[in-house]
Amino acid sequence: MTRLGIGGLEGPQTEVESAAQSYQDDLGWMVGVYGSGVWLIAGREVEALDMPRELATRAWNLLGQSVPVFESSDEHGVRWAFITKVHVGPTLPELAVRGVDHIRSGRSIDLPPSKYGQHHLRWITSPLTATTPRFAVVADAVLQALRG
Predict the structure, then answer these.
(1) Of the candidates 79, 83, 51, the residue with the CA atom closest to the CA atom of residue 67
(2) Whole-angstrom Cα distance, residue 146 to residue 148?
(3) Mean pLDDT split into 10-residue runs, the chain, 148 residues
(4) For residue 50, which of 118, 107, 90 has the smallest C-alpha distance?
(5) Cβ(24)–Cβ(4) under 8 Å?
(6) What residue segments make up the domains of the chain, in order of their start?
(7) What is the pTM of this model?
(8) pLDDT on residue 76
(9) Checking DSSP bridges between strand 46-52 and strand 101-103, what pairing results, if any?
(10) Closest Cα partner for 116 from 16, 5, 10?
(11) C-alpha distances out from residue 17 to 32, 33, 129, Å
(12) 55 to each of 87, 110, 117, 123, 131, how far by Cα in Å?
């Protein structure tokens, strides 16, 4: 992997720059850094399923708390986003009508430790210590949590 070219001669890396470098070096993700945020484009390496925390907590427990998920909080509430492998199939409308946002190809995913205004992101389960699941595995757990 090519170094992001941040830190080094300019001085020590910020928390965001350090996270971005780790995502690139340890996970192979192509990321971008801007001010106090780090992001990637969905559909290259991973995608995300973003949902209300209450639903996400039930799905996370069904998944054994072993998949990458982060929390996003702002003045409107708290949501969790599961990182998944890229899904090439159709969207699932039964998830969308329940407030689940499938962040897929071409959209950006802001990653922890991004902060802007009152919007803060933090890992619940880091992708550095968890296996990235197939989209269908997480979607099935979410559907099960909705029924349960």
Answers:
(1) 83
(2) 6
(3) 51 86 94 93 96 97 96 89 95 92 95 90 95 96 95
(4) 107
(5) yes
(6) 8-147
(7) 0.90
(8) 81
(9) antiparallel
(10) 16
(11) 9, 7, 20
(12) 21, 20, 25, 17, 21
